[in-house]
Design a protein that fits this description.
The chain has 475 residues and is an all-alpha fold. The chain has 21 helices and no strands. This is Polymerase.
Length: 475
């Protein structure tokens, strides 16, 4: 059974041996290596790449999607330059992981879906956008292998998210014009301010801040010194408060899933040092306490109670009713093209959806990650996407176990990435913000963080043996 799981998750894939004999690698990698050796600029290639990546996360909340697209093109161009100028012999830290292979497979399925799309031109435009996101992942996975650059990029994002959250809290205290009907007009909360900061939409803001909450939580354990830890704690409080004040139900669900996952993984990390009693009961006690606080908030805080109960109001709530009507149309779209879908992106969706939509229920997407993937690339693409998620989390757990045994504090960033991905999946199950560049770039950053830790399974085993063998450790 263990062998089957390793094959399914590509854990024992001999990537190093394959890359050593790959004709494509020999023909492409290293073409510009001699030039790189004499280039002063490319000697700092990974640092320059980290600066380009940081620029995306610095500007994402404040600029248009067009400018983000230009920065993505710059990142892709620089990734191509670095790849072509790499050394032909693979380094100790592999550039290709099983996660890369699944990302490549998903891209290939999207290409086929575009070729067979009933609206090929629209699908082709969004295939280009998807390609930019996936190559951003490739560049991030490469750069984040350096613990110093990994910490730098995460820290940049956390400081920008703090600025975004502070402005969101200012909107709560001083008021902000609601740019759309974000709450059922008949609800007692119809006049409640839902903060949206610089992003213009409370649901989008919630999706953007969720990684900030989790990463700032684990930063408390990574950053050294009381001043830095106090800053991380401040970030946790401010980001969490701002996310809650978006009154995004999907954001609340995602936040709950992300926080519970982070706590469970943190307890797992510390369990080696805990006494037997706390090793057994710490997780139930902490999770039970958090759920108890949530129940008290639902009982005694009226806005929270009304917003939570509206989740279960089915079609009695206008937002629920809207999504239900969109989903009914989406199910029909999937039924008509179940294998390979209509092609990637909202442009293709906007061309096909009007043929199925209910009167007065227009939509830009399927309001669900899984449904959107099924619409765009069919059940073939959905199966590949789910496979990618399984491989990603399996890889994360294997590397987390390795880092836990060695006590490497960089493992906390891995915990943050895992918890964030689960939270974003939970939020994206009932919302559409996952496909917006402000959030999608963060998703691929989290996947890249996990990929950056990957080591072959046999290398993990040898490292674990060395760490447990004093003679090997000192030799």
């Amino acid at each position: 059974m263990n062998l089957v799981w390793q094959r399914l998750t590509l854990s024992d894939l001999p990537l190093k041996e394959y890359l050593a004999t790959s004709y494509l690698r020999r023909c492409s990698i290293g073409l510009l290596n001699s030039w790189r050796q004499s280039s002063i600029l490319l000697q700092w290639g990974d640092v320059i790449a980290a600066a380009l990546i940081s620029l995306i996360y610095v500007l994402a909340p404040f600029v248009s999607s067009t400018l983000i697209g230009v920065l993505l093109i710059a990142c892709v161009g620089f990734w191509l330059l670095l790849t072509l100028s790499d050394e032909r012999v693979p380094a100790n830290a592999p550039l290709v992981t099983p996660i890369h292979l699944l990302v490549l497979l998903y891209w290939g399925i999207a290409v086929v879906a575009t070729a067979l799309s009933p609206v090929k031109k629209a699908a082709l435009n969004d295939l280009v956008t998807l390609t930019l996101y996936l190559l951003l992942f490739a560049l991030c996975a490469r750069v984040l292998r350096s613990p110093r650059l990994r910490s730098w990029i995460i820290t940049v994002y956390l400081h920008i998210s703090l600025i975004v959250s502070v402005y969101g809290l200012r909107q709560w205290f001083f008021g902000a014009a609601q740019l759309a009907t974000w709450v059922d007009p008949e609800s007692p909360l119809s006049k409640t301010t839902r903060v949206y900061s610089y992003l213009g939409n409370p649901n989008l803001l919630a999706g953007y801040l969720m990684p900030a909450v989790v990463l700032s939580l684990v930063a408390i354990f990574v950053w050294q010194g009381w001043v830095k830890k106090a800053l991380a704690l401040t970030m946790v409080v401010v980001n969490t408060a701002c996310l809650i004040l978006t009154f995004s139900r999907g954001g609340w669900i995602g936040l709950l899933v992300a926080i519970l996952t982070a706590i469970a993984l943190l307890i797992y990390w510390q369990s080696l040092q805990l006494p037997p009693f706390w090793r057994t009961w710490s997780l139930p006690i902490i999770l039970g306490g958090l759920l108890g606080l949530l129940v008290l908030a639902v009982i005694f805080v009226e806005p929270v109670r009304l917003r939570v109960l509206s989740i279960f109001a089915d079609r009695q709530d206008s937002s629920n009713n809207y999504r239900r009507n969109v989903w009914d149309a989406v199910f029909e779209m999937i039924r008509d093209r179940p294998i390979i879908g209509i092609g990637p992106g909202h442009n293709a969706f906007n061309k096909v959806y009007p043929l199925y939509q209910r009167p007065r229920y227009s939509a830009l997407s399927a309001y669900s990650i899984l449904l959107e993937v099924a619409v765009e690339t069919g059940f073939v693409g959905l199966a590949c996407f789910l496979w990618l998620i399984v491989v990603t989390f399996n890889s994360a757990f294997i590397q987390l176990r390795r880092l836990r045994e060695t006590g490497n504090v960089q493992g906390f960033w891995l915990i943050g990435a895992c918890a964030t991905l689960l939270g974003m999946l939970a939020h994206g199950t009932v919302d559409t913000i996952w496909f917006r560049p402000e959030v999608n770039t963060l998703w691929w950053l989290m996947v890249a963080i996990i990929a950056s830790y990957w080591r072959p399974l046999h290398q993990n085993s040898s490292q674990a043996m060395n760490s447990s063998n004093p003679e090997s450790a000192t030799s």
